[in-house]
Design brief:
47% of the residues lie in helices and 0% in strands. With 76 residues, the chain is mainly alpha-helical. It has a domain of 51 residues. Helix 2 packs across helix 4 and helix 3 packs across helix 4. It starts with 31 loop residues before the first helix and ends with a helix.
Length: 76
């Protein structure tokens, strides 16, 4: 038998080596507390309580507090 055919050596690229860029433009992908944080902070500056804000926006008070905390961190 003669020489057997052999493919040239080439490095195998795995998925982790292929650069990928993805933009998050879907508004549904952004958590609610991030979307409403500016509104929560504005209403708090007007003197509303977290309970009143939550009732007006249709969320629970915990979410209103989380949004305010996140908004304050972003402003710092």
């Amino acid at each position: 038998m003669g020489k057997e055919w052999r493919a040239p050596s080439e490095r195998i690229r795995t998925a982790s080596e292929i650069p990928i860029e993805v933009g998050l433009t879907d508004e549904d992908a952004i958590p609610i507390y991030m979307r409403i944080s500016d509104k929560i902070l504005y209403l708090r500056r007007l003197g509303m309580t977290y309970t009143n804000i939550a009732e007006r926006l249709g969320i629970n008070p915990w979410m209103a507090k989380k949004a305010a905390q996140w908004g304050n961190i972003q402003k710092a």
